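Re: export button greyed out
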Amino acid sequence: MAAAVWEFLGRFLRLFSMPTLSRHYHALPSVLVPLVSFSVFAFAMSPRGALAGAGTAPNAKLVKTGKTLFTKNCASCHGANAKGGVGPKLQGITASDARITKIIKNGKPGQMPAFGEKLKAADIRALIAYLRSLK
Ligand code: HEC
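Workaround output, generated via the alternate export path:
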């Protein structure tokens, strides 16, 4: 990380100490050098997960989070793996994301508690990703 910063600064300073080169190609180095340096810098800054995650389904992590949240908050009524219980089976649910979000937030009076206070928007997205992953 520190190495990338020094690399960036070094190249940037060298830009001003190349009078002969820059007389002929003055536009080229001044555009390319910062661009290359910035790419190196940006690459160094990027989270490892961006590369490590390549090849895995992009929402696999979301689905896993959703399953954990479901088991904790919903399975008591909707059954393990959402196969149904006191509450209806949610596997293969066809309702839109917006509709499911609304039901989770507001609940169903007298039947299902509202989770609007308890779950964040990201939690609800994870729950929906989990439900959509079930056939
Ligand atoms: C106390 C029991 C209970 C809990 C806990 C519960 N639900 Fe429900 N849920 C129900 C019942 C009962 C219904 C059916 C209501 C109806 O028929 O209108 C329902 C309906 C739903 C529906 C609509 C299903 C459809 O086909 O219209 C969704 C989606 C849903 N619940 C998701 C969840 C999620 C996600 C959680 C966890 C965050 C959860 N529920 C927790 C009892 C529960």
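The helical segments are 2-14, 19-24, 27-45, 49-52, 60-73, 75-78, 97-106, 121-133. The button fix ships in the next patch.
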